[in-house]
Every structure is written in C-alpha cells, then in structure tokens.
Design brief:
By secondary structure, this protein is of the alpha+beta class. The protein contains eight helices and 13 strands.
C-alpha cells in the first residue's frame, strides 16, 4: 500500500486479543496499512479482549462521534479477592471468605446499580489530572482526589453464577469503568471482588460480528485490507 493520494481511509473493527495494549494494535495496523494516520475510538486494557475500533486515514476525524457511543461488555467478577487495580492485573489487597450467596441476591445487587449515577475513576487508569496519568501517580504510591463522572448503566444482567465467579453482561455509557462496577458489586455482596475477565462486544451498533483478528489481517493482501475498512459515514450511521 502506498502513501499517496490513495491513502487508505475507513474504520477497522479489530477483535483485540488479551495481553497486548490498544497501542500495540494501532502499531500493527499502521504497519499493515503503511500509514501513520491510525487512531482509535476508545482503548481496552491489556487484560481485556474484544471490539477495538480503529480509524485509518481521514476516518480519524470521526473519533469523537464514535467514542461517544454506548458500549456493551461481557465480564467476570471474582468474589473474595480485592486488588489495587480492581482487576486481575493488580496486587491483592484483601482475601475474604465468600459466603453462601444466591442468584436472587446477585440479581438484586445488579438491579440496584442500574440508571444514572456518578463513578469515581480508579487510580490505576489512564485519566489525566494535572497533566499526569493517574496510573503514573499510583505507581509512585500517590493518591489524588478524582472528580466523579456521570455515567449510566442501562442493563446489568447475570449470565451465570458459580462461586466465586459471577459472569455478567453490562450495557453502559462511554467512560464507564467496568472494573469499578465489579469492585462495587463485590462490596454490595460483602466479600469484595475484582474484574477477572472483560470482553467488549459492541459499541453503538458496531459489533464483533465484523471484527477481524490481527492474525487474519496479517494474512490479507492489499485489496483484502482495503475491503476490511468500513466507510466512516457508514460506521457513524451504524453507531
């Protein structure tokens, strides 16, 4: 692919694997499409998998519109273990016994977390305060006051429960920290919890059904790579 006036442009839906950063995926796509103009419409933590929306060429201008869409995730909360990052990548802060908990209790707790609310961003996050990313401050042992942000949880459904693991589906507004939802759920149920799995399945009406793995993209020729791009106006309309 050349860097000419025929620079590729469009929205690429990637099924991000676990263990790499969203920036790693951006770098891979830059190499595949031979362009530096690759952005994203919302990152995923290294432990998370699923829908990562990348913007290639002129489609980078659609970032704000695509980032604003509501998201859907599948997640797993493990009760009895609380970590400093609220997910499986952190250091354990608490280990507590998990009492007998019924599905009814879990459904009631999930239902109590629906609707408009404020959420305090975790210290281990990429949100910036005073020009510094929170996780950079957290690594130095510092904790700063974070302003709560308005979010909305439209659906928080139980998929399965086998102690100590709760599998759920959540439909929420942009900027929601699902690991904080898992942490809060654990506190509501008593023993605490951390997010042990997260997979983004949808953003707006864009979903994983059109997602490409990095392995599949790496095996494509130039024509196939171009065909994998969704026109920006179509992606915005779908979202």
């Amino acid at each position: 692919m050349s860097d000419s006036v025929d620079e590729p442009s469009g929205v690429l839906l990637v099924d991000k694997p676990q263990g790499i950063t969203s920036h790693d995926v951006v770098d891979s796509v830059r190499r595949l499409y031979q362009t530096r103009r690759v952005g994203h419409a919302g990152t995923l933590d290294p432990m998370a998998t699923g829908l990562l929306i990348l913007l290639v060429g002129k489609a980078t201008k659609a970032s704000d519109q695509l980032m604003a869409q509501e998201k859907e995730y599948l997640g797993e909360a493990t009760l009895g273990i609380v970590t400093d990052t609220q997910d499986a990548e952190g250091e354990t802060l608490e280990t507590n016994p998990v009492p007998e908990i019924t599905e009814s209790q879990i459904r009631d707790a999930l239902a109590s977390m629906l609707g408009d609310q404020f959420q305090i961003p975790p210290m281990h996050s990429a949100k910036k305060i005073g020009g510094k990313k929170l996780y950079e401050l957290a690594r130095k042992g510092l904790e700063v006051v974070r302003e709560p942000r308005a979010i909305r949880i439209d659906a928080f459904d139980l998929i399965s429960w086998q102690s100590p693991k709760i599998n759920f589906r959540v439909h929420c507004t942009k900027g929601t920290y699902v690991r904080t939802l898992a942490y809060d759920l654990g506190r509501k149920l008593g023993p605490g919890a951390h997010l042990s799995m997260l997979r983004r399945t949808r953003s707006g009406n864009l979903d994983l059904s059109r997602g490409q793995t990095l392995q599949a993209l790496g095996a494509m020729n130039d024509d196939q790579l171009l065909a994998a791009l969704v026109p920006a106006h179509e992606a915005i309309g779908a979202a």
